[in-house]
Specification:
6-stranded antiparallel beta sheet; 318 residues; 8 strands; 40% helix; alpha+beta; 2 domains; two-stranded antiparallel ribbon
Length: 318
Amino acid sequence: MSDVSDPELEELLREIDRLAARRDWDGLLGLHNRARAAHERGKQLWPAAAHAEYRLALEAPGEYAGAVIVEGAGRFALGPLSEVAASTHTWAELAPHTPIGPLLSITAHERVVRGEDLTDDDRVDRLVLPVPLALERWEPAYAVATYAHDKADFPMPPLPTPVVADLPLAPYELTTDADEVLALRALVATWLTDSNGQSDAVAVAGTALTAIAALGATYARAAEISPAEAMALMAWAGASGGAEGRRRGMAWGRFIAWECAAELAGVDIEDDVGGAASELRWYVWDTGAVDTGWSLRIAVEDPEGGCAWALAAMDRAI
């Protein structure tokens, strides 16, 4: 870890600000290359190289922004550079300058979640994220990230206010829906592996309220939400790094939400996921307590199948 009081590093960071303010992108790219080369020689200047990459992705024209979307870049940035660049550039600006590879396709999907239709673009590898290259009519307007030179905002999608729920009493009949439980936990995988998160998920015979009670809740508030609202919430969680993990980006969040919805609805991801998801009942819930940090509580009910699932996940900085 570099000493933040290192005079050489501090001066490099100030010079990055000056070059970006002057929109001297060639100068900023040159500084980035020098800082990266110095780091490879053992000098601890990676914060300067990383910040220069971030500023190029965020603020520079597409020829510079696309060029820094490469494996290993942006590791310490506020978000993945594919998402950072896509937040301020169109696909037409980025695509000709982004190296061919998985990150090109992920960048395309970042533009899709912002409303672009790339269905006919052959540069995108459909195997990287096998979800449509345009938003489906049933999908929400995803709560996309916004980036600035020194901060980022990852808004949670708006949700209805829950009301007190009448939870059933034990005993609860658990089911063997292991894949559905794993799909719910996958929404917060980064919270669990890269941060301090905890999660619990359950599958039961019964209703969504039965599943919530089976998680151990003795008091809960719940509100039914639409499949689109559920997708927005699941994508928000899937995109995030939680309190201390590395953010995956909304392109990944959307894909993980599609995977979860398909698994719960009992269809393949290539099928009519929206139609199948509309046959389920979706809920958000809480325990009435004020959450600190990140939280995701969702419950899903299959009225026809007589079963339900629920997830409780939390994460916070230590």
